[in-house]
Amino acid sequence: MSEQSANIGVVGLAVMGSNxxxxxxxxxxxxxxxxxxxxxxxxxxxxxxxxxGFVGSETIDEFVASLAKPRTAIIMVQxxxxxxxxxxxxxxxxxxxxxxxxxxxxxxHDTIAREKRISETGIxxxxxxxxxxxxxxxxxxxxxxxxxxxxxxxxxxxxxxxxAKVADxxxxxxxxxxxxxxxxxxxxxxxIEYGDMQLICESYQMMKDLLxxxxxxxxxxxxxxxxxxxDSYLIxxxxxxxxxxxxxxxxxxxxxxxxAGQKGTGKWTSVTSLDLGIPLTLISEAVFARCLSALKDxxxxxxxLLRGPKPQFNGxxxxxxxxxxKALYASKIISYAQGYQLMQSAxxxxxxxxxxxxxxxxxxxGCIIRSKFLGKIKEAYDKDPKLxxxxxxxxxxxxxxxxxxxxxxxxxxxxxxxxxxxxHATALSFYDGxxxxxxxxxxxxxxxxxxxxxxxxxxxxxxxxxxxTNWTGRGGDTASSAYVV
Length: 485
Hints:
Blueprint: E1 8-11, H1 15-25, E2 32-35, H2 39-48, E3 55-56, H3 60-65, E4 72-75, H4 81-93, E5 99-102, H5 108-119, E6 124-131, H6 133-139, E7 142-147, H7 152-162, E8 177-178, H8 181-210, H9 215-225, H10 233-243, H11 265-276, H12 281-293, H13 296-303, H14 317-350, H15 356-362, H16 373-383, H17 394-416, H18 422-434, H19 441-452
Parallel strand pairs: 1-2, 1-4, 2-3, 4-5, 5-6, 7-8
Antiparallel strand pairs: 6-7
Helix pairs in contact: 1-6, 5-8, 8-11, 8-12, 8-14, 9-10, 11-12, 12-18, 14-17, 14-18, 15-16
C-alpha cells in the first residue's frame, strides 16, 4: 500500500458499501481506499475486483494514511452506535478540512448532533442519504447530501459522477442543506416509499380478492400501467414479481408469508410529522399496515371468529381495473403532497433552504421511488417555488378531478366487500378534509372547552383571540391556556 494514494475512501464493505466503492472506482480520476473492521471482507473485495485498483487496509490507521488530503471517507455501516464508533475513530485521526461522510440511513436528529460536534473540530461532516438499493449503489444511486457546506465543493464532482442521471444528463444529486437536511430528505423519501408500496399492494389485493384475477393477469395490468402515468420502478418490479414462478411453476408471490418487515425510517417520518403537526396520514397508515401484517398469528385466529362480507363483483372488470389505476394515481399524489408538506414544515423548523423542485429531480433516477410522476412535481415547483401544497398545482388538481369518481368507487367497493385498503381510504379522506372549508373541529373545540376550559376562537372575531364559556353554570370563569401544536 502506498501512502496518500487514494482521493476517496469507504468504510464498511457490506453489499451497499462494496457496491458504492466499485461505483467510485469505475469513475475516471478516482482511487478508492477501502476498510472493513473484519479484514476478510476487505480481502474478498480486493480478490474479486482487482480491476478496481482498490487500496485495501487492515487497520483504521492504515486506511487514514492511504487518503490524500483533504481526506474524505464515506461511512457505510449500520446506523446507530456502529456509525458513532467509526465517526469517533476517524475524527481522532483526521485534521481540520478533512471530510467525514455518513452514507447510512441515519436519523436526521443524530446527523444534526454529529455535524455540530464534528464541525467544532474543524472537520467537515456530511450526512448523505443514498437511495437505490444494491443495484443503485453500483450503477448510480440518488444521493441527498447535507451538512457542512464547506465540504460540498470537494465532494460534489465525486458524488455527481457516481449518481444516477436523468435523460438530459442531470445528476440525481445536489446539495440539500445544512446539518441534517440530507438525511431528513432521505427519511421522507423512505416514508413515501412505504406509501407507494402499500398503495400498490392494495391494488393487488383488490384485483386478487375482489376481481379474482390470477398472478399472470395482474402481471399484464401492471405491465400496462408501467407504460402510462404510473410508470415507475415500483410498478415495474411488481410487474416482474407477479410473473415470477417458483420451482413447481406456480407464482412465487402466493407462497410468501404475509408479514412485512421494516427498518424504522417510515416510523421516523410518521413521528416527525406528529412532532411538527403535519397530517401525514397516508405514510402513517402504510407504517401501521406493516405493523398489522406482523400480527400474523392473531389475524389467523381472528379470521375464524370475526364476520365480514364475502367479496363479490358483478360489474365490468375492465372498467374497474381502469378505476383502480386512477385511484392508485390519485392516492399517490396525496402521499407526495403530504410528504412535501412535511418537508416545508421541517425547513421552517430547522431553517433549511430546501429546493423542492430539485428534490424531485434527485428522486427521478437511481432511487426506489423513481418515476415519471416526479417530473410533474419539479414542473409544479419550477412554476411556483412557494407552492403550499401539490394539490393546488393545476396539473395535480386536474388529475385528482378526473380521477375522483373512480377513486370513490374503488374505496366504496372495498368497504362494501370488506377488503382492506387503508392507504387508499385515508388518501381520499385527507382530500375530502383538505378541500373542506369547515370541518367539525368547532364541536371538538367546544368539547375541549367544556371539560378542560381550553378555550376556542370565534368565526365572528379576529384569529388569535380566545374565549371560554361556563357551559354548565358551575365551572366558573377560569380558563386554561390555549395551546396549538
